[in-house]
Every structure is written in structure tokens, then in C-alpha cells.
């Protein structure tokens, strides 16, 4: 008979642990791009818009797993800076989000610094550990997403 290796039980609050790692990593990235005047959340928003444009705000919010009201609030400073345009959509009731040329330039500026921060984190944690972390996060999101879909279907 083969002895089963005991699995360590989780210790502490998973939400708290996730917030700890998120805050720690966010501080590193935010420090790396601080000279651009943006935070990582804003750079992420510019990058998602660039990948999807022109995009309806509701589709962008869904892709980023944000409430539409949160997205709207986060778009305002980018629109005010002239980096993002919220223009008319295909019908009178819809709008489309797109980057402006200054927005593309700002994204490119931040992207260089983001890449350095990413490589530094990979070096600090080890590329293999980062790849494992990404895989585990993706798996957890898939399971949690499936749970949420089941809940919304009344299951």
C-alpha cells in the first residue's frame, strides 16, 4: 500500500491572503510606472481598450470583470487627459470607447516600464513560480466563474 501524502490545510482567510499579494505586487508595478503619472489599473484599462477598440463600455466592463459604473468612473480621468474617447456607437443609445493618438503614445510609454517591472517580478519570484501562479489563478477563475454561472441560472 502506498502512503498518502497529507495535504496542508489552508491557514487563515483566503481573501486576506489574496489581498496581501495583490497589494504587494501592485505597489511594485505602480512604483515602476509612477513617472508616467498612471497607475497600473489605468494602464490595464488603456491596454484592454487598445485590444478591443472600438468597444462598447458594457463589453469592456465584462472583459475586465468590472461593474459598468466602476468602469465609467475609471474612464473619466483618461477621457479628461485626452487619452480615451467616448464616442457615438452604431445607434443613438450606444457609445464606443477608443484610444486617441495621445492615448496610444501614453500606453506605449507605460508599456516599456511595465515590461521591466514584469521581468523584475519574474526574476524575484522565478519564472516557473510565476507560470504556476498564473495557471493556478486561471484554474481558480474558471471554477469560480462556473460557480457564478450556475448561481445565475438558479442552480
TrEMBL record:
* Origin: domain of life: Bacteria
Fetch the InterPro entries from UniProt.
HTH_MarR-typ, MarR/SlyA-like, WH-like_DNA-bd_sf, WH_DNA-bd_sf
Q: Which residues form the HTH marR-type domain?
A: 11-142
Query: Looking at the Swiss-Prot or TrEMBL record, what is one Pfam family this protein matches?
Result: MarR_2
Q: What is this protein called?
A: MarR family winged helix-turn-helix transcriptional regulator
Organism, by scientific name, is Piscinibacter gummiphilus
